[in-house]
Amino acid sequence: xxxxxxxxxxxxxxxxxxxxxxxxxxxxxxxxxxxxxxxxxxxxxxxxxxxxxxxxxxxxxxxxxxxxxxxxxxxxxxxxxxxxxxxxxxxxxxx
Length: 95
Known about the structure:
This protein has one domain (15-89). The chain contains three helices and two strands. The chain has helices at 17-26, 54-64, 67-70, and strands at residues 29-37, 82-89. A two-stranded antiparallel sheet has the order 1-2. It is elongated, with a radius of gyration of 17 Å. The termini are far apart.
């Protein structure tokens, strides 16, 4: 089965958290902080979001505040839309 065509060139690759950490180490960075980010997508905004109802946007904002909890909750965090890795450049890393 062919992979779906991705229109946005910045999103041509998808990595697991372990792959991203390995890539950091391969390029001389020591991962110091990493994790999953944004389980619940941002569906609303102060300017209206995707809903035309103020109440719906307020509800989405309340649910969105649960992201930090879900980002730490296994296996829910595996469904995050983003991962992050913060690294520190090191001269010699043996990993």
